[in-house]
Amino acid sequence: MTLKLLLAFDGSTSANRAAELLAGHAGADDKIEVLVLGVDPRTAAAGSAAVEPAAARLAESGIAVRRQVRVGPAAPAILAEARRQKPAAIVMGTRGEGALHGFALGSVALRVVHRARLPVFLVKAQDRLPAAFGRRLRVLLATDGSKPAMRAAQRLVAWRPWLGELEVHLLWVQPPLSYLQTVLPPHDDVIEQWNTKEGGRATRAAVVLFRSERIPTHVHLSVGDAALEVRSLAEETKAELVALGTRGLGAAHHALVGSVALKAAVACPVPVLLVP
Distance between CA 131 and CA 121 in Å, rounded? Predict the structure, then answer.
């Protein structure tokens, strides 16, 4: 079965990096088909000129390519095209414009992630790309035990035919105790917070899923700032992709996308998959 992807391309360094991620796909040529979408606020000719290098690069690597050009604001055009074409995922670069609690995510990417109802791969200009994408892939999946996190796990399993054989590192992060919690007499809920039971519960369903599929799985339990812990473990495990669910805990500032997911998307040194 061929997986259809939408590559949003504007000619930027980060967009070229996203194109390189797909061009480096080492699986069978018939596993993916890419629609390269160029959006220009002024003319179709400018958008067409922008997409041609990416389309040519993908075709050169043996990937089936289609081209599309839209005129208008980028984020609405990308979302509209995704509704029309119904790809399995959107792939796009982010240039790191627009601050969010000390982290920066490109404004177009932020709008797309907020409103897309399908997975989005975000690629930064400096990201380290997978060595054998399509044949094997080491993934870090951050989970809080929520339904969105489980959907991310299920998506990884379903996409194995084009992602490649997976090795999964599951991460659950416990927020650190507050000052009052450390000085007041211990209570059952505080004790529970500091043992492994909660982490075990949060990761259990994903562990069962991956191991039932014979996917090598490693569980990591940590304490601290979730986004920074994700970045740290991604570096430690040499993860090639970070995956997160986007409608779980931590969405107080963003109705659809948790702030942890957004921070991790910027902080991690590899492409990030956000799954709604």
Answer: 17
